[in-house]
Amino acid sequence: MRTLCASTLIGEFFVIGFAGLVAMRLSDLSMGTVWTVSGTAMVLSVLLCGMLTRPGGVALGWALQIGLVLSGFVVPVMFFLGLVFGALWWASVHFGRKIDAAKARFAAEAAEAA
Predict the structure, then answer these.
(1) Pick from 9, 48, 65, 97: CA 20 to 30 A from residue 17's CA?
(2) Around 71, how many Cα atoms within 13 Å sit in the side-chain half-sphere?
(3) Is the pLDDT at 114 greater than 80, yes or no?
(4) Counting beta carbons within 10 angstroms of the beta carbon of residue 96, is it exposed (0 to 12), middle (13 to 18) or buried (19 or more)?
């Protein structure tokens, strides 16, 4: 699960950065406000890569997805991109857990055979 989720989060890192650049041009927000919010979200996306296996890591990832969708109020295309990354996050968590379960099952079978 960690690899799939981390890949999604790193992709979001870049999308958030580009959305910050667009928000500077399209919104009435100050540059400081845009980069404080965007920078915080970018740092959070990177930090979450290391927190995925800890309790609450996946829940914080969901919070980031909600924030990404809500950023559509500043940059309208982010409504769409937020939903796309939300779907990618769901798929990463869902299928990542299935992969982890299959790996554990194969490891148990290998240990049993040995």
Answers:
(1) 97
(2) 33
(3) no
(4) buried
